[in-house]
Amino acid sequence: MSLLNLFSSKEENPKVSNHLKEFLTDFSIEVMPRTAAKIESFKEILPKNTRVYIAHIEGVPIKEMVQTAKRVSREGFNVMPHFPARIIKDKSALEEWINIYQGEAGINQALLLAGGVDKPHGVFEDSMQLVETELFEKYNFKNLHFAGHPEGNKDIDNDGSNKNVDDALQWKQKFNERSDIDIAITTQFCFEAEPVIEWANSLTNNGINIPIHIGVAGPAKLQTLIKFSIACGVGPSLKVLQKRAKDVKKLLLPFDPNDFLETLAKHKKENPKFNISNIHFFPLGGINTNASWIKNAINNS
C-alpha cells in the first residue's frame, strides 16, 4: 500500500469495519505533561481504564511527570510512565523514580526504552540494564513494555543493520520466558501496513512471541507528521511523506489512519494468531482530535 493512500480525508467520520472496531478494543494513547495539562477532563474524551502512557521528555522534572501520572490515574485510567534508561543516573535514581511513582500514583507498570539522548546521564544505556537491576520485580510491577522499531533504529544500529535491535529482542524474549511480569513490545508510529506485517511475522519466525502494541500516528496535518517523523527517526516513511508534501493541495488536507488500521485489522481477522494485539496512538494532531477520531470510528460502521 502506498502512503499516498494510507490516510482517508474524504469523509469526516469514515465508516469502519467490524474487525477494525474489534481491533480498536483496549487501545492506548500517549501524552506528555504539557499536552495533558491542556485537557480539562480525560474522562470526557477517553473510555475508562484506557492505558495512558506518560512520555518522559528530557529536561522535564520527575515531579512534573509524577503529577501528570497522579492526575490521570485519579481520573480512572491505567497509567504507564516511560522509564528512559539514558536519562536515569543510576540504580538509586531508578529506585527513587519507582518509589515516587508508586507512592504518588500507584504505578505498577512501565514502558522501558533507551531514551533517545546521545550521551547517557549516568550508568544506563539501554532498557535491558534497567531490568537487570531487578527493581521492577522487587516492587511487584505487573507489566513492562519495551520500545519496538519496525523500521529499525539508527541510534541502536548506526551501521544500518538490525543486529543490535534483533539481539535485544532475543534478550527480551528470554526475559519474557523466565519472568512472571507481563511483557509487550510497543512500537514507534508507522504508516505502511504491509512492511509492519512482514516485520511482525519475522519476529514470530525468529521465535519471539511477545505481543506487539503497534504505534499509530493519530489524525494530523501532513506538516505535523513530517515534523514528528524527522524528530523520531521514522526514515522510510518520511521519504514518502516528503514526496506527498510537494503537492500543496494535499499538504493542507487533514489525514487519519483509517486505511492503515483497516489493513492491519483485516489481516488480524484472517490470521487470529497474528502477534499484533493492540493499537497505541501517538496523538500528533492533538489528544482531543485523536480521541474524537477513535470515538467516531467505534460509533460508525
Could you explain how this protein is built, in words?
Helix 8 links the parallel strand 6 and strand 7. Residues 1-12 have low confidence and may be disordered. Helix 3 packs parallel to helix 4 and helix 9 (222-232) runs antiparallel to helix 10. This protein is an alpha/beta fold. Strands 1-2-3-4-5-6-7-10 form an eight-stranded parallel barrel. A two-stranded antiparallel sheet has the order 8-9. The chain starts with 17 loop residues before the first helix and ends with a helix. It contains 13 helices and ten strands.
Oligomer: single chain
Runs in which pLDDT lies below 50 for 5 or more consecutive residues are 1-12
What's the helix count? 13
Could you tell me the strand content as a percent range? 15-25%
Whole-number average pLDDT? 86
Helical percentage: 40-55%
Rg, nearest Å: 19 Å
> What distance separates the N and C termini?
23 Å
Topology, please?
Blueprint: H1 18-23, E1 28-31, H2 33-36, E2 51-54, H3 62-74, E3 78-84, H4 91-105, E4 109-113, H5 127-132, H6 135-138, E5 143-148, H7 163-178, E6 182-190, H8 193-205, E7 212-217, E8 220-221, H9 222-232, H10 235-245, H11 248-251, E9 254-255, H12 258-270, E10 276-282, H13 287-299
Helix pairs in contact: 3-4, 9-10
Salient structural properties:
17% strand; 301 residues; disordered N terminus
Summarize the structure.
By secondary structure, the protein is α/β, with parallel strands linked by helices. It has helices at 18-23, 33-36, 62-74, 91-105, 127-132, 135-138, 163-178, 193-205, 222-232, 235-245, 248-251, 258-270, 287-299; strands at 28-31, 51-54, 78-84, 109-113, 143-148, 182-190, 212-217, 220-221, 254-255, 276-282. Strand 6 (182-190), helix 8 (193-205) and strand 7 form a beta-alpha-beta unit.
